[in-house]
Amino acid sequence: MDKYIKGNKKTEALELMVGHYLVGNQGIYKVQEFLGEGGFGKVARCTKLGSPEIYAIKIITNVQEGKEEFESMKLIQVLDPDENHLMKMYECFSFQNVICLVYEILEESLEDFLIKNECKATPLTYVRALAQQMFQALKALKSIGVVHCDIKLDNIMFADKKSLKFKLIDFGLAVESKELPIGTDIQVTRFRAPEVILGLPLDESVDMWALGMVLACVYFADVLNRAKNKDTFFTRDNGDWRLSFIDLLKCILQVNPQRRITPSQALEHDFITMNSLMPVPSPDKCRGLCERETQLNILITSRDELISIYCTDQKFGHTSFKEFSLFS
Predict the structure, then answer these.
(1) Which entry of 2, 80, 82, 150 is annotated as an active-site residue?
(2) Is 222 labeled as catalytic in the residue annotation?
(3) Domain 110-229+238-289 of CATH type 1.10.10.60
């Protein structure tokens, strides 16, 4: 019994080892391996004794932070986690100095996917599936007045890569929209909405901006945020689907949050509904996209508070230009 970790036994998450047991309210969990760690503690892949099921247990060393994440998860209990593409929580239990949250096991994050894919371009088939499911997730959160506040590449995971199923995870910073005061320090820098930076009134539209940045990173292979220079040059196959996606991005990345597209409206966009568009090419066909003649060059530059976008069709020589100002 010396390997069991009970409520009346002092311990620290860093002392946990593979093979240790955690005694929860709904069963006893055995640590099989550690999936990752951070400032909060560790995430362990665990099995439950007497069950073939596998779980991901987030072990949080800061008791207050653990309780806050549990309270945040309680906000979304009314939502169906599978229908709305949200991470499923089974239970929360505590013992001295440690909080454990038991979640469903998922595959890998978008961050890990891009790294393993060596930041190569992602087919629109993947992007569309990701966008549709995350729009549904944000629509559900908006319906109950909850803001995630921390949407980024490593907080969206594959639930099933073969069927392109995704889930939104980590609700540790989620709050009710009415509790978002001006000047709130939320979102990591590269996914931070303009209104957060400028200290303006906030609402759930901050999540849409962050998701728009995620979709751009995934499609453009995260080049935009990894570039050493402010000028970033992209070459993509031309076609209705890509142009429709870029149009959707423009609707999401509206500097004025009042003009930003909502999750419900995004679900009705042509890129998602496929109305008036040719079918999305399969992943196999996407491998040969770069060999086609027609290409679109996109040049994004930034200077002071101005963001400029230039689009040039290599085949027909058409060029379009649009400039945004953070203060307009």
Answers:
(1) 150
(2) no
(3) no
